[in-house]
Specification:
The chain has 192 residues and is mostly beta strands. Helices cover 6% and strands 47% of the residues. 39% of the residues are buried.
Length: 192
């Protein structure tokens, strides 16, 4: 099956098993996933996603990741038995940068990640950004597909367990706190 991105490009995204429901796509923690076309991870960049983890999520589980082996690109990973979400991005000089937020419960939450050549940030819902700053650098860009719902740490076709309601990818733009909160307020009615 497939779906089309709702941007001006109308990219075809390949869906494997992730079923559509009232609030988004459900992933079974076995083999579901969505593969998007090539995504540039060059800075600046923003990813906003509404997620709801379920009890099937393993202790460590990636749910949005570039599909390249090794230390390149970007990933969002649920960790500590599902209690935190950590974002990772790889830079040419600074190396791996990571920032985390705590998931207070298994309800839907908006996870926002932004990066530039000098900052890397993550936030949950309408909260403040947890930010790392560093000397000017560039992201290692894998020129690969973005996998949504895939947990490649468990195998090529393994998946994360939960519902992903919406994923917004803004290439060439790192939104600020006010923009994030406007997005949160304008979309939360669908999820909370």
């Amino acid at each position: 099956a497939s779906l089309q991105s709702r941007d001006r490009y109308g990219h075809t995204c390949l869906v494997s098993g992730a079923t559509w429901g009232l609030r988004g796509r459900s992933f079974d923690s076995v083999d579901d996933g969505i593969a998007t076309p090539y995504t540039s991870y060059a800075a600046p960049h923003t990813i906003l996603t509404w997620v709801q983890s379920n009890s099937l999520a393993p202790a460590t589980s990636k749910f949005i990741v570039d599909n390249s082996p090794g230390a390149t690109g970007f990933m969002l990973r649920q960790e500590s038995g599902g209690a935190t979400v950590t974002a990772y991005v790889y830079y040419t000089v600074a190396g791996l940068k990571d920032r985390s937020v705590t998931l207070p419960n298994t309800n839907f939450h908006l996870i926002t990640v932004t990066w530039t050549n000098t900052t890397f940030s993550i936030a949950i819902n309408n909260g403040t950004f947890n930010t790392s700053t560093f000397t000017s650098d560039t992201v290692i860009n894998p020129n690969d597909t973005m996998e949504i719902g895939r947990n490649i740490e468990l195998g090529a076709n393994a998946s994360w367990g939960g519902v992903i309601g919406e994923v917004q990818v803004l290439s060439g733009r790192a939104i600020n706190f006010l923009e994030k909160n406007r997005y949160y307020e304008s979309t939360k009615w669908r999820f909370v």
